[in-house]
Design goal:
By secondary structure, this protein is of the alpha/beta class. It contains three helices and four strands; from the N terminus they run H-E-H-E-E-H-E. The longest helix is centred in the C-terminal third of the chain and has 18 residues.
């Protein structure tokens, strides 16, 4: 299930999106948010509604902001190399200004940062 109707990807809309998701399906066991702010909002919704993280629902964000470490439990997230991303954005802007051409797609490596908001699943032996 995908919820993509939030006006802006912030905590408040993370809360609202989680409410919409869990109204549609109470059996969701994992949630991936487009950024950490949305994930933090979703965590607040889950806690307000009696869900335990990660026992009932695993939550993963994207961008690894400092506030993630202050959450209980700390948020599992995808770390984006912000410095490298900024360098590539500047290169793309200079290329556009010099050549007036569209830039190509730029990929930067990301890293999964495992913290306590996700439950580790193991295969059951048959």
């Amino acid at each position: 299930m995908i919820i993509i109707d939030a006006e802006y990807p912030d905590r408040q809309n993370g809360y609202k999106s989680a409410a919409k998701l869990f109204t549609q399906n109470k059996n969701v066991t994992a949630l991936f948010a487009c950024n950490d702010a949305m994930a933090i909002g979703a965590i607040h919704y889950l806690k307000d509604n009696g869900y335990k993280i990660p026992e009932d629902v695993s939550v993963i964000g994207f961008d690894d902001v400092e506030a993630d470490l202050m959450l209980e439990p700390p948020l599992t997230t995808i770390r984006v190399p912000k410095f490298e991303l900024g360098v590539e954005a500047l290169r793309a802007m200079i290329n556009y200004l010099n050549n007036k051409s569209n830039t190509k797609k730029i990929l930067v490596p990301v890293e999964l940062i495992l913290r306590q908001s996700t439950k580790i699943f193991s295969k059951k032996k048959s």
